Amino acid sequence: KYKGKNIADVLEMRVEDALEFFQNIPKIHRKIQTIFDVGLGYVQLGQPATTLSGGEAQRVKLATELSRRSNGGTIYILDEPTTGLHFADVQKLLEVLQALVDAGSTMVIIEHNLDVIKQADYIIDLGPEGGERGGTVVACGTPEEVAQVEASHTGRFLRKVLPDAGTATATTTAATAIAAAATK
Known about the structure:
Layout: H1 7-11, H2 15-21, H3 26-37, H4 54-67, E1 75-79, H5 87-102, E2 106-110, H6 114-117, E3 123-127, E4 136-141, H7 143-147, H8 153-161, H9 174-183
Helix pairs in contact: 2-3, 3-4
């Protein structure tokens, strides 16, 4: 037993509780901290991987990567990593992703969450709809450039959340020109 807990008790702990429990064991605490940092503080330490959602499983993998020493240069591909996350946890995840970018890594993220989209350096907006009615490049560029493309559903929503992201009256913005070239 450690601090009155056996292994079964520890495996039933939520990540958030384990942070405090293992605060005096730096090697363990650091690993648990990375899981917490990607927004998984509510997960039990012993929770079977098969019970995690796709987004949660991606964040566990991301936490594993974060716990390794990185020299940058890694490309991460994430498919809707914010699925099921509370707003505060989305913000934590964004901080973690930004830290990886700051360390020289590249993020390719498929996402519908505007909090993530508006932080992007570059957006490729596929549409015009989802599923079989999609797959065409509607717009691409910075969030501000995509916000100016009338045909972009993503752009319409970005206009609501980005300051000074008015609509372009000309249809030949850089983003639509690139989109037109990509569809030929």
